[in-house]
C-alpha cells in the first residue's frame, strides 16, 4: 500500500507533496522563459508589486532567507528580468523591480503556472478547488500577519 492510499497522512506532508508535484509540472513550462521554478516566486512578487522593493522586503514577503533572495535576484538580473538600483532613502539598500522583459512574459508565465496547477488539481471538482484555495489563502493570510 502506498502512502497515498491512506488518506490520513499529515497535512504538512500533503501540502508539501502537492507543492512538489506542481513544481515538477511547472518546471518544464517556465523553463521556456529562461527561469527556474525557484525563481518564479521572486518574479511573481516583483511583477505584482507596483513599486520597487528592497531585497529584505522581498525576502519577508516570500518567507525566504535573505541570502537565497540575493542569489535569485542576482540570477534574474543577469537574465534581464529584474533591475537593482541604490535606494535613495538608504544607500546601503538596493531596490529591486521587474524589467520590461519580465512584464512582457507576465501573462504567459501566469498561464503556464495556472496550467501546472490545474494538472495537479484535476482530481478535484471545481467546488473542491475553490474550497481548497479559500482555505489555503486563509492560512497564508494569517501566517503573513504573525
CATH architectural category: Orthogonal Bundle
Major beta sheet, strand line-up: 1-3-2
The rounded Rg comes to: 17 Å
Q: What is the class in the CATH system?
A: Mainly Alpha
Number of beta-strand segments: 3
Fraction of residues in β-strands: 5-15%
CATH T-level topology: Arc Repressor Mutant, subunit A
The helix/strand series, from N terminus to C terminus, equals HHEHHEEHH
Total discrete domains: 1
Q: How would you classify the helix and strand content by structural class?
A: mainly alpha
Shape: globular
User: What share of residues is helical?
Assistant: 55-70%
Characterize the main sheet: 3 strands, antiparallel
Tally of helical segments: 6
Mean pLDDT: 91
Report how far the terminal alpha carbons are from each other: 39 Å
Low-confidence sequence ranges:
none
CATH superfamily grouping: Winged helix-like DNA-binding domain superfamily/Winged helix DNA-binding domain
